[in-house]
Amino acid sequence: MTDIASKAGAGAGVLRGIFLMLLSVFLFSSMDAIIKWASRDYPTGQIVFFRNFLAFVPVFLFLWHTGAAMPLRTRHLGGHLIRGLVGVASMSLFFLALGLLPLADAMALGMSGPIFLTALSVPLLSERVGIRRWSAVLVGFVGVLVMVRPGSGVFHPAALIALGGAFFYALAMVSIRRLSRVEPATTIVFYFTLFAALVGLLSWPLGVIAPGWLGAWVRPDLEGWMVLIGIGLIGGTAQLTMTYAFKLAPVAVIAPFEYGAIIIGVSYGFAIWNEVPDWAILLGAAIVIASGLYILYREAKLRRLPAAIEPPV
User: Fold this and answer.
1) DSSP assignment letter at 259
2) Do 114 and 295 meet the contact criterion of CB atoms below 8 Å apart?
């Protein structure tokens, strides 16, 4: 009876993890749609600041409600600095791409992150990647080429910005893997969010000095305040739901649900901006998703999955 009860409890935990993952994907996709909307009026640095500074509100409310502690002492400031630099680069490039590309296109290109991560794990983490995962990486890059269509008349230079965001996301995941050996996940998230908020705040005076490069901050009206505050609160809540999804269920079980973001992205793009992704984006996204799922399967089989996966935004 004890074994049956424990299995039932584990199964319920997995179901809750799946539900939280789906909720997190919906929240992050909604945040991306709001960021695309906000990018018409506000520079990327200002959006980065509100996304991270206000994300502390739901996080601290949750910690206060549960009585949990966030360990802030660290002896690895250098590692947190590297993680912060590559993470902010990824976030900024992706936010910029959201304003320049159709929503589904930017999200589909952003899904190439796991492909870059597998390729970078060899030189940066000294991991061994077998022929099967290398094949999946090559297939994934074929999917990226299908979406980007270099040399064609429909190539959009902003696609390279989205791919740059995915590349820096992979570097961020490498730094998280290294830090997770010596730091708890809450500490890693705290220092990154703090660093990203400070970098976003720094864009304020820099935007005044060089508005043509960074974009000067804009004083929000009532609607603007609601949009910017919503970005931060939704982003922080999504971060919490994803974190606890990975605590309740194995990574290999719930991580594939993250690819559902492309369906939500297509829906938002069509409903708000009347965007319809063409055949190349849909075909390329399907190839990239299939490649990412196979890489995830091989990682799970080799038991080299991290304890949690942090989203790019």
Assistant:
1) G
2) yes
Read off the amino acid at residue 89. Answer: A
pTM of the complete model beyond 0.85:
yes
Rounded to whole angstroms, how far apart are CA atoms 43 and 45? 6
Helices 158-179 and 131-148 sit at what angle, rounded to 10 degrees? Answer: 150
Sign of CA dihedral 225, 231, 232, 233: positive
Integer Cα distance of 136 and 112 in angstroms:
12
Answer yes or no: are the C-beta atoms of 84 and 196 closer than 8 Å: yes
Residue 114 neighbours by CB distance under 10 Å: 26
- Please report which confidence band the pLDDT of residue 106 belongs to, taking 50, 70 and 90 as the band edges: very high
Helix/strand/coil for 192: helix
Domain boundaries, the chain: 15-301
